[in-house]
Amino acid sequence: MSQQVGVIKRINGSLVVAEGLKGAKTGDAVYIGELRLIGEVIRISGNLVALQCYEDTSGLSPGEPVIGSGAPLLAELGPGLIGEIFDGLERSEVEFWKLTGPFMRRGVKITPLRRDKKWYFEPGAKPGDEVGEGDVIGVVQESSIVEHRILVPAGLRGVIESIEEGSFTVDDTVAVLATPDGRSVPLKLVQYWPVRVPRPYRERIPIDRPLITGQRVIDTFFSVAKGGTAAIPGGFGSGKTITLQQIAKWSDADIVVYIGCGERGNEMADILTNFPELEDPRTGKKLIERAIFIANVSNLPVAAREASVYMGVTIAEYFRDQGYDVAVIIDSTSRWAEALRDVSGRLEEIPAEEGYPAYLGERIAELYERAGRVVALGKDKRIGSVTIMGAVSPPGGDFSEPVTSTTMRFAGALWALDTDLAYRRHFPAINWLRSFTRYVDALEGFWIKLDSQWKMYREKALAVLEEASRLEEIARVIGERALPNDQRLILLTAEIIKEGFLVQNAHHKVDTYCPPEKQVKLLKIMMGFHDFASELVRLGVPVERIRSLRSVAELLRLKEKERLEEIDSAYERVRKDLEKLKAEYQVAR
Ligand SMILES: Nc1ncnc2c1ncn2[C@@H]1O[C@H](COP(=O)(O)OP(=O)(O)O)[C@@H](O)[C@H]1O
Ligand SMILES: [Mg+2]
């Protein structure tokens, strides 16, 4: 291919207009200026090409050259991804700091995967084997947790000519493939994929299992499926980051891709220093052994956030194709959408709502559509999933703004954070009246195995909470004591569900993670209490008598018990106390 060369005409922030670059296509990666800053072709009109530059353009001048790569922006995929902290262009933060310190990073060329490191490759195929795209030719133990499966890249098939066991760098040839058209293609540990193109799979399959997060309000009431999507909108300080970090730590995903789009200045610095140290409670090792971080450090321009999201999702799909359940966490998608707005504004496109481009909805939909549960390409029917969970930060907490309202249309689950709840220190501050999940029916099978009555408990608890919020309004006017007893019981049960179930302290040793079995048991006991207490109320027992029982107060603390038997015995005490009250009132009749 002849090299594409152009010349810079104008520079407007991250937007660079160049002349020339014959043959360049929209989406092609380009190197801009003497410093070879990384960018992408976003629009071509005649002889002029609009480029989005992902690095700081200050000091760049008209007349400097632009070189087209002739290929789209690619993700480099292979052993060495796990445990890395990359910037949005897949450059290692650690390498950056070694090379340049925190500041001068422009135009620095760092390959995503380390070139010097050797990986032990164990072949899973032998000479003479016929293989096609997506087949596993061998494995590398990448971290103590992750076995990296080396796949035949998409579009390739043939017969294995040779394959070798041993220590290799990502660039070494581990096998040679004889293709039907008579070529010998070397297979390496590294391969490439354009970040904006979803990776192919054999077929999508129905989602049927939850991503267990150990967070009760999420799993029990508003769960997300493995392969599904969830959005968590909320104003500043309402708990988006803490909730997503809890999910990163505790969810039963095999691999976590965490994309940080710098909410606050020091947040990324926190991630860089804290994440490598985070314990992985599920394995007893470090979280970094099964996680990849993409940090949009604040000295990269906003435009880079745009690319970083696709970079992260592409890496996730690559591990999905190996047969893993991958959780993608984006904090926050609003910062990503702002990058879209920034670029659109500089292109002088006609803005839609609040300056966002008209294609905002399309882009958000496309992003979330990259989630899914699939059978991967290849013979052995590997099943993997990508679950995408994104924070949304509406300015002023106003959910009607474009990014939030659009995201709410596409997300499978919505965890609506509520500033009032956060203010009252009800955490996670997920509003149970405004949140939803579209996965209840798909996931029912999982929960019913734990308790056949699960769906009934869940619906009943939600009904009690809803009714209670209506009654609270009335009680505010006429006073709680003026309400009839059955309604006061609704308020009492709702209080027990809120305090004893919905509120979950991320910093409490036991409460930080609640296994599904315990969630089901707690809910069952609370709804069992409600049924029994309703019976007493019908007999004329005042709610005050029920409320003042010590065993009932204990219901609020059951969540802190580690062993399920302790929960059972606490409930036995409640039953005994209620039986006693019942006997008293039956005699009185
Ligand atoms: N589940 C939780 N348990 C305990 N505290 C929480 C929880 N969620 C949020 N918080 C509190 O709220 C504060 C702000 O949360 P954060 O996630 O940083 O908000 P956001 O990302 O929405 O701006 C945290 O520093 C913490 O004190
Ligand atoms: Mg945050």
Give a quick precis of the structure:
With 589 residues, the protein is α+β, with helices and mostly antiparallel strands. Strands 8, 18, 19, 20, 23, 24, 25, 26, 27 and 28 form a ten-stranded mixed beta sheet that branches.
CATH-assigned homologous superfamily of the largest domain: P-loop containing nucleotide triphosphate hydrolases
Examine the secondary-structure arrangement and name the CATH architecture of the largest domain: 3-Layer(aba) Sandwich
Cα gyration radius (Å):
28 Å
Strand content: 15-25%
| Helical content (DSSP H or I, runs of 4+) | 25-40%
Description of the structure:
The protein is of the alpha+beta class and 589 residues long. The protein folds into four domains: 4-72, Elongation Factor Tu (Ef-tu), domain 3 (Beta Barrel), CATH 2.40.30.20; 119-189, OB fold (Dihydrolipoamide Acetyltransferase, E2P), CATH 2.40.50.100; 202-435, P-loop containing nucleotide triphosphate hydrolases (Rossmann fold, 3-Layer(aba) Sandwich), CATH 3.40.50.300; 451-588, Orthogonal Bundle (Bovine Mitochondrial F1-ATPase, ATP Synthase Beta Chain, Chain D, domain3). 34% of the residues lie in helices and 23% in strands. The strands form six sheets. Strands 8, 18, 19, 20, 23, 24, 25, 26, 27 and 28 form a ten-stranded mixed sheet that branches. Strands 1-2-5-4-3-6 form a six-stranded antiparallel beta barrel. A four-stranded antiparallel sheet has the order 12-11-9-14, with no helix packed on it. The termini are far apart. The mean pLDDT is 92. The chain binds adenosine-5'-diphosphate and magnesium ion. Magnesium ion binds at residues 240-241, 263, 331.
